[in-house]
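W.,

You were right to be curious about this one. When I first looked at the sequence I had no strong expectations either way, so I just let the prediction run and decided to look at it fresh. Below is the sequence, 256 residues in total, followed by the output.
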Amino acid sequence: MVETASNSLLSSSTSDSSLSVQLHPLVLLTISDYITRHSMRSQQGPIVGAIIGQQNGRTITMEQAFQCKTKEDGDKVLVDEEWFAERLEQFKDVHKAPPLDLVAIFTLAPPSGPLPDHVPILQQLQHSYNDSLMLLLFHPQTILDGSLTGGKLPISIYESFYEPGSENADKGLQVDGWGMGRQLQMRFRQLPFEVETGEAEMIAVDFVAKGSGSATVHNSATPPSKGKSRADGSAATNDLQLSPADEEGNHHHSYL
């Protein structure tokens, strides 16, 4: 569990949601592939993607993933709404049996947990698609410094919720809705997860756990400067490919 004292976005309370998260290997491989291509092509900007799966009662599966096209909105980075709506529908059309829907977003972060930059994009998609949207973070630093032990994966998964904001809380991360002049602050709690996989797939999962090419992860872990980046999604899935229009460059901020 991440130490809450080092990150003001983490709640000191334990989760009472009793959620069970089942992570499928294809999601890990998609994220790893995305990071590798982002680095090899010297792309600028944040690594942000969506994860689709199912929710059956308190059990949530994460089964497919795809990278997202983002845009700058003032000092924030958000998902390109029109692009995202079309892309999500394409994936939902392909994956109808069983039906999959948006359950999480993924991005990069230090081991200490979510960053303030993650909040606007999470709020955006929660408002439009799923108010229980989770956040999956990939931690390149744990690969670079060799801190992964015991077959652990360089990822963590968080649920978000709102609680009264403090006097010194970042007003940009708060939302209206709390009485007596106070606002609600988004907080995060880390969730346990299991990797749903057979013996053959564990070979690929082990590859991700061991770094999936530490040189490329090292490049991706370096904060990029402002610039243009392509969101082509060409290797994110075998089912769909982005059109040339989807590959147009867009200005981004770094999430690291």
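Here's what jumped out at me. The first strand starts at residue 20 and ends at 23. And, maybe more interesting for your project: Residues 140 and 176 are 35 Å apart (CA to CA).

Coffee later to discuss?

I.
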